[in-house]
């Protein structure tokens, strides 16, 4: 324990903070995402993709549920399932 005027090493500070908020180990994961693009003019590109093709349920270790504004994290928030997207990018 540090006395008044002394500073704790960074490792001890991090351990003290994380031990209060850690909800346990997180497992590893892998997801497959596919995307393609077509540059149909000098100034424009059309892109499309599918994220999480196999619709795997997973949560990042640091997820939105751990946002400091939400208070102490008590559960992990799953990432979105399969998501399709389309984007038009124009350069001027």
Order of helices and strands: HEEE
- Assign an overall shape: elongated
The strand order across the widest sheet is: 1-2-3
Tally of DSSP β-strands: 3
Describe the main β-sheet briefly.
3 strands, antiparallel
Q: Give the structural class.
A: alpha+beta
- The radius of gyration computed from the alpha-carbon positions, rounded to a whole number of angstroms, is 21 Å
Q: What is the helix content?
A: 10-25%
Beta-strand content? 15-25%
> pLDDT average, as an integer?
77
Distance between the termini: 60 Å
The low-pLDDT segments are 16-20
Number of helices: 1
Q: Can you put this structure into words, describing what you see?
A:
By secondary structure, the protein is an alpha+beta fold. It has one helix at residues 10-21; strands spanning 34-39, 44-51, 83-90. Strands 1-2-3 form a 3-stranded antiparallel sheet, with no helix packed on it. β1 (34-39) and β2 form a beta hairpin. It is elongated and about 50 Å long.
């Amino acid at each position: 324990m540090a006395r008044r005027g002394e500073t704790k090493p960074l490792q001890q500070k991090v351990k003290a903070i994380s031990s209060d908020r850690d909800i346990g180990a997180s497992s590893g994961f892998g997801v497959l995402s596919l995307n393609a693009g077509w540059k149909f003019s000098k100034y424009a590109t059309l892109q499309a993709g599918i994220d999480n093709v196999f619709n795997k349920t997973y949560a990042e270790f640091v997820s939105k549920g751990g946002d400091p504004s939400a208070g102490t994290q008590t559960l992990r928030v799953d990432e979105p399932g399969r998501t399709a997207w389309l984007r038009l990018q124009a350069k001027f």
